[in-house]
Amino acid sequence: MEDWPKHKAEMPYGQVPVLEVDGEFLPQSNAIYRFLGRQFGYAGETEIEAAQVDMIGDLFQDYFNEYREYFTVAVGFTQGDKEFLFNSVMVPARNKMLRYLSNILRSNGTGFLVGKSVTYADLLLSIHTAGMEGIAPGFSNDFPRILEHRERIESIPQLKEYLAHRPFAPF
Ligand SMILES: N[C@@H](CCC(=O)N[C@@H](CS)C(=O)NCC(=O)O)C(=O)O
């Protein structure tokens, strides 16, 4: 955080995340997800699946905007009443989003959010609930399909290996 003001000026829009590819700086989470998803085969197998995966990526942006006020206080970026914001901002946003995604999981019926295999939409969900669990323990406990989905995603061998050895990430 102390170094951030220096790096902010180097970022195309003064924000992170930014992916650097062969000297090109690519900002915006969803552009990065699509770029990596297409490159490595996690962006949906057909045109309609790709659109459904992107739809979930966009939904996560809207969702983040809904709970941003709680999140910035919870991780110490801004000052505020964390408990009040959890109940008034985070809980309604979480309930709406996790219910919606539980319904998608139930109707898709493959164990994944889109199609028959893992996509970046599944990674967004499992990373989100894992991160929130660190901030608000028990975050997804009322959503059994979401818990089960996270276990499925985190037990993918390559991901399991990565999660066991990745550098410390605060959230
Ligand atoms: N729409 C952008 C939003 C990026 C964004 O809000 N970045 C925040 C961190 S999550 C940031 O860089 N904040 C530091 C700052 O603005 O100085 C995206 O999805 O990548």
Description:
GO terms for molecular function: glutathione transferase activity. The structure is a single chain. The protein is mainly α and 171 residues long. The chain has seven helices and two strands. The chain has helices at 4-8, 29-40, 47-74, 82-108, 120-135, 144-154, 157-165, and strands at 18-21, 24-27. It has a two-stranded antiparallel sheet with strand order 1-2. Strand 1 and strand 2 (24-27) form a beta hairpin. The radius of gyration is 17 Å and the shape is globular. The mean pLDDT is 95. Residues 8, 14-17, 28-29 line the site of glutathione.
Give average pLDDT, whole number: 95
N/C terminus separation: 14 Å
Which oligomeric state applies? single chain
Give the cofactors and ligands.
glutathione
Number of helices: 7
User: Strands across the major sheet, in which order?
Assistant: 1-2
The major β-sheet equals:
2 strands, antiparallel
Our Rg estimate from Cα atoms comes to 17 Å
Beta-strand segment tally: 2
How much of the polypeptide forms β-strand, as a percent range?
under 5%
Structural class: mainly alpha
Q: Which bin fits the share of residues in helices?
A: 55-70%
Unreliable stretches (pLDDT < 50, length at least 5) are none
Order of helices and strands: HEEHHHHHH
The best one-word shape is globular
